[in-house]
Amino acid sequence: MGEKNRKWWQNAVVYQIYPRSFQDSDGDGCGDIQGIISRLDYLKDLGIDAVWISPVYRSPQDDNGYDISDYQDIDPMFGTLSDMEELIREADRRGIKIIMDLVLNHTSDEHRWFHEAVKGKDNPYHDYYVWRDGEEGTYPNDMKAAFGGPAWEWVPELKQYYFHQFSVKQPDLNWENPKVRREIYDMILWWMKKGVGGFRLDVIDQIAKEPDLGITSNGPRLHEFLRELSRETFQKGDLITVGEAWGATPAIAEKYSCPDGSEFSMVFQFEHMVIDQQEGKEKWDLAPLSFVKLKKCLEKWQTGLYKKGWNSLFWDNHDLPRIVSRWGDDGGYRVRSAKMLAAVLHGMQGTPYIYQGEELGMTNVRFDSIDKYRDIETLNMYRERLEAGYDEKEIMDSVYAKSRDNARTPMQWNSQENAGFTTGTPWIEVNPNYREINAEEEMKNPDSVYQFYRRLIRLRKTYPVFADGRFELLLPDDRRIFAYTRTDCDTEMLVCANFTGEPAACPLAAQWEDAEVLIHNCGGGFGEEMRPYEALMMLRKRR
Ligand code: GLC
Description:
The chain has helices spanning 2-5, 33-38, 40-46, 81-93, 112-117, 178-193, 222-232, 250-256, 291-304, 323-326, 334-346, 376-387, 392-402, 439-444, 449-462, 465-468; strands at residues 14-17, 50-53, 57-58, 70-74, 97-102, 131-133, 152-155, 160-163, 198-201, 240-244, 266-268, 312-313, 351-355, 470-474, 481-487, 491-498, 504-505, 516-520, 529-530, 535-541. Helix 12 (376-387) runs antiparallel to helix 13 (392-402). With 543 residues, the chain is an alpha/beta fold. The strands form five sheets. The protein has an eight-stranded parallel β-sheet. It binds alpha-D-glucopyranose.
């Protein structure tokens, strides 16, 4: 690609903030925008370029803000519109762009449009949503909502069902209606005028649903809608845009992230994130990680989009468990395995995303009672599975492994009460390990996970091979070693990691004897046997 043709976001590292859990400034136990502003210097020090903020719009918070009742206002729990403007300004002063989270598949049932829509079939807003005539108790079909129960909700006054892919309080918007699309574009342009640097598009592959055919993602008109959306909005600025697309394949992602900019900059795809669940089942149905499959999956995406599209790189977000607990070791090797996972991810081609606390090696949480959990998805699953006769212990094991609340416990800033997150009572309890794992400690310690992430970010900015190099997987069938090279016209980089807690033989050291070590998560050299969770990056000129 070459440095000249590169887009700014191809060199960028993005940090995701879950505002509710990041930093509280007023003692109400919930994070807020002023809290984020007070931590911008921390983010600047880490070296990131942009911050994606999960939704802060006005919302009844049925799904923690992913149920929006006003796209052009801020929820009082997070602050005001002028706080948001201040955040954009203050971030900009530090060279950081703000990425807003756009939830365009559905609104809240408390959105003005929905209030109007239920008033009558001839109300101009009725067709903003997806309705089917019917009889009470007989659903239009057997489609299920992602958070449990049927995807249809009866409205007696209208004698109609509305369609919702998520909770009953998240009615799906009807993208077939051009008026809906126009309203959305105007709203996006309004945010662009305020100076936002980009957008993350929530469950965007589900907007072109065809409920009568049972189609949720990748509907027939999806890319037509997306090209129109992009043309009417994003293409009028120099934005980073990233769509959430659980149903993407590399071929589909080529369309989404086509270098001509006709859709988005990139998508979040999740193929590598469902490898530790039973095939065809739900995420709660746990299966051991197939490491070889993981490598081949990432290879497929790395080579599939090379020069044809662009990858996003991530292990964590607000919906996923903490990676160090998931595929590393959150006990004795926590620090080393967190760094190993970081190195493996950040060496690949794409734009890396760091989820708040990942840079500290924050871990999953194990609350002793379901009453301490807050997530709608977790609570619904717990209830449904209990009713279906599952064993409580088995359910809790799924919660410990996969609950979204693992990622949503408050950010661990220091060893003071509530980890420095709030002076009040946090909306969800702090992970008790905050006394050992916290930002203040890690910023002082040169060997911390935080410092490792900081260095990885700087390496990406120093060596063009991170952005441009061709990916090649080495030792594809090795059951312990994750190794790959990245090659551009004059440099070759090796990323080599032991993905396990056991020593592992590695035949690569001899071939890379004369290369420069860029970063290494253990002391000592690169030998024929790699230590548990050892990882390093090496660089040499091409011969
Ligand atoms: C996305 C969000 C998730 C939310 C869902 C419905 O998957 O990341 O948090 O619950 O969409 O909006």
